[in-house]
Description:
The chain is of the alpha+beta class. It has helices at 30-39, 71-74, 77-82, 128-137, 147-159, 165-175, 217-222, 263-268, 280-294, 308-320, 343-353, 358-361, 377-388, 426-433, 445-449, 459-462; strands at residues 16-23, 47-53, 62-68, 87-93, 108-112, 115-122, 181-185, 190-194, 203-207, 210-214, 226-230, 236-240, 244-248, 260-261, 274-275, 278-279, 301-304, 328-330, 354-356, 365-370, 393-398, 437-440, 456-457. The protein folds into two domains: 16-258, 4-Layer Sandwich (Glutamine Phosphoribosylpyrophosphate, subunit 1, domain 1); 278-475, Rossmann fold (3-Layer(aba) Sandwich). A seven-stranded antiparallel sheet has the order 3-2-4-1-10-9-11. Strands 5-6-7-8-12-13 form a six-stranded antiparallel sheet, with helices on one face. Helix 9 (280-294) crosses helix 10 (308-320).
Amino acid sequence: MSENRCESYKHLGEECGVFGMYDFDGGNVAESIYYGLVSLQHRGQESCGIAVSDTAGPKGKVISYKDMGLVNEAFTPEHLDNLVGDIGVGHVRYSTAGSSTRENAQPLVLNYVKGTLGLAHNGNLVNAPELRNELAYTGAIFQTTIDSEVIAYLIARERLVTNSVEEAVGKAMQKIRGAYSLVIMSPRKLIGARDPYGFKPLVIGRRENCYILASETCALDTIGATFIRDVEPGEIVTISPEYGIRSDKSMCLPKEQHARCIFEYIYFSRPDSMIDGISVYDARIAAGRFLAKDSPVDADMVVGVPESGNVAALGYALESGIPYGQAFVKNSYIGRTFIKPRQKNRESSVQVKLNALKSAVAGKRIIMIDDSIVRGTTSDRIVRMLRDAGAKEVHMRVSSPPFLWPCYFGTDVPAKDQLIAYNRNVDDICKIIGADSLAYLGIERLEEMVGGNLGICKGCFTGKYPVDPPTGDIRGEFER
Ligand code: SF4
């Protein structure tokens, strides 16, 4: 795994955000893609990029720009002025597989005999190493260490023996296993595809005669587009002026096999997004309410660890009748230059990014809600911060069950022995983090939290994964 990891005071990283747009009237899409990526920035802060093409111009001419850093740092007005095209894809990245370098930034642009592909990918494949070896032994030369290039190669190869790029995407999907939401630009088509389990979200939107694919609905709102629908797990959508939106559902699985990453609702996605018909905000409120019902405690104030703990804290307050308050001030102006890669530095970044509000917490019994505990070092520091600010008691409630297993699908839940809950019970963990009490969301509450009707993945809590995990650790395989 990358040592250059973008480490915030929060605990988990999501792999990426994707965005694609096609203006059937021939207007320039680069600026809207830029704003779409800005609104997906929470999904990845290491690198970003945009690739565009002019569908009326020479077939296969793609202009792209990508760089390290935040979208608003990487792109200047001049960069955007150079990106002229009516079809395009964009990407923000957080690396869970493949190191944090400029070559690994996306979108990937691939030139091959049938033209050019631009590809943006969110997720992790479990069989990328095997596929990469297979491809390498038949002549492929890889420029990056990311799974996404494996997908791009497979599509390019399949395109040589299929009638259309969407058919090639379908054939590639039969070979890849794991989590992926893809946005692909061919010279004349915009294609979206979601893995058959639906690990990662992908939505379709429209603004006048422009069609949009995006990881989250908040990106549609940002650019003034209307939500049309979610891409279904296993579905391939092809967007073109000739046919509008065409759908191929031949890879779809029965609903019972769907396995959306529950952390999209708990933590990754923005609360103003909707995923598969469920509001992220409502799911977090529900989690807070369940915690209040299942693990009540007498206290003076409920607070959230910003940002994703805030909504669950409100849910707890609404259910319990205990006032909701703010205990922390977050410094939002810390850019990449401050990011510290190694564990020994992680704790200091907590303090720089968060400070306790002494006048709000002094003398009070506090219920503090956070979305998860991974290694425990962050929670320990935040509990101490509240005590130092004069809190009389600190009761921690966590809006997810304990992590006991790693994730192989694009979330950097680490190996078992790095997880605080591994081989420890709740009392042990409570002592380590120094709280007066600790309770997690019950695993049986997860389905209810998202309305009771959605197939979800719970692999990192149960060790039962919807897709067989790889035998070795696939993360960072090609860094070694
Ligand atoms: S194992 Fe956990 S983090 Fe990974 S996809 Fe499943 S629910 Fe999400």
